[in-house]
Amino acid sequence: MSVTSVVEVGPKGRVVIPAAIRRELGLHQGRELVAMIQDGAVVFMPREEIKRRLRAMFAHVKTSMADELIAERRAEAAREDAE
Length: 83
What we know:
- This protein is an alpha+beta fold.
- It has three helices and two strands.
- It has helices at 19-25, 47-57, 65-82; strands at 33-38, 41-46.
- It has a two-stranded antiparallel sheet.
- Strand 1 (33-38) and strand 2 form a beta hairpin.
């Protein structure tokens, strides 16, 4: 379902998310949203959704990126020590 509403920027830049949109997305007081700019638009996304999308993007990665970085740094340090 697509819900469209016009909202107004109030004092201190505050914007009220209309009730129909909050219901559609299951938003409630205290829920964390991430604000970002995409293609000239302000987009608010629940923090959990950002995490879900990132996990999906990197699901195919079988090794730890941190472990790879540590290994690269150790190899670089070993090369420097050999010089």
